[in-house]
Specification:
The longest helix has 20 residues. The termini are far apart. About 25% of the residues lie in helices and about 50% in strands. It is of the alpha+beta class and about 120 residues long. The protein has a single domain, classed as Nuclear Transport Factor 2, Chain: A. A hairpin with a 5-residue loop joins strand 4 and strand 5. A six-stranded mixed β-sheet has the order 2-1-6-5-4-3, with helices on one face.
Length: about 120
Amino acid sequence: MSPTMVHEIQQTNRLFEEIAANRNIDGLDRVYTANARILPPGAEMINGRENIKSFWRNAIENMKIASVKLETVDFELLGDTGVEIGRATLYPKDAAEVTVKYVVIWKRESGAWKWHVDIWNPNA
């Protein structure tokens, strides 16, 4: 993976952290592809960026998320897609942190690397 790509991946992940902290849900246009899917734990699959934005708006508000920290554990480039395995820590206001593991399938859209499929589940 080139240094440029590493920077792009890290930049997109930092953008998600900022979006969660600032509740700037419209910024998810720069994180998820237009036809992205998320697979939240214990819930149905959610298709499309607008539905994903609605999910995150509600989740961030309901969980009272103050900040999020993403950590890439491994990234593998497979042609025009990439697969990231990572850890995320969610820091709610006035509650214990929540740690999850995740897999993101990345895809290039409009010249930028974005999340195309996003699945996560909590650590026990």
